[in-house]
Each structure stands twice: as structure tokens, then as C-alpha cells.
Amino acid sequence: MKQLIETIVKPLVDYPEEVHITTEESPNRIVYKLSVHPSDMGKVIGKQGRVAKAMRTIVYSAAGSHHKKKTYVDILD
């Protein structure tokens, strides 16, 4: 899933080398925490959160069949 998130985010940002994803896993859920350069934050979130929502939809559907756990994507500031 980390690779999928990177594939979605890196073409959107001006500083792709500063895209970092950490994973927190518990028995019933997985949280992917996305960190980008501060000037790229708006590009990742999008107008009214549309880009972030679309990214989450793709990751949730891919992870639902793969992990069998609830999956979350958090964008850190």
C-alpha cells in the first residue's frame, strides 16, 4: 500500500523526495501517515479535499481486499 500511495502522490508534488509514509499497525486496523513538503500540502489535499478523498477511496478499496483490516490514510502537516 505504501507503494500505491507513493505512486499517486509523487507526480502531484514539487518535492517528490520529501514524500514520506509511515505505517502504524494494530490487530484490527492499519494507519498510513503521509508527510509531504509544506508547500505541497495544498496539492495533496486539493480543492475542498477532493484529491485526498480520491486517494483514500483508491487505497481503501485496494486495501480492503488485501489486508482484511480497516485502513486509514492520514495526511500530516
Automatic annotation (TrEMBL):
CDD domains for the chain: KH-II_YlqC-like
> Where does it reside?
Cytoplasm
Quote the protein name from its UniProt record. Answer: RNA-binding protein KhpA
Assigned GO CC terms: cytoplasm
**Entry's PANTHER family?**
RNA-BINDING PROTEIN KHPA, UPF0109 PROTEIN SCO5592
User: Record keywords: Cytoplasm included?
Assistant: yes
Task: Could you list this entry's UniProt keywords, alphabetically sorted.
Answer: Cell shape, Cell wall biogenesis/degradation, Chaperone, Cytoplasm, RNA-binding
Question: Among its keywords, does the record have Cytoplasm?
Answer: yes
Query: What is the stated purpose of this protein?
Result: A probable RNA chaperone. Forms a complex with KhpB which binds to cellular RNA and controls its expression. Plays a role in peptidoglycan (PG) homeostasis and cell length regulation.
How it assembles, according to the record, is: Forms a complex with KhpB.
Q: Name one GO molecular function term.
A: RNA binding
Similarity comment: family membership = Belongs to the KhpA RNA-binding protein family.
Tell me, in one coarse class, where this protein mainly resides: cytoplasm
Q: Which organism is it from?
A: Viridibacillus arvi
Which GO BP annotation is one of this protein's? cell wall organization
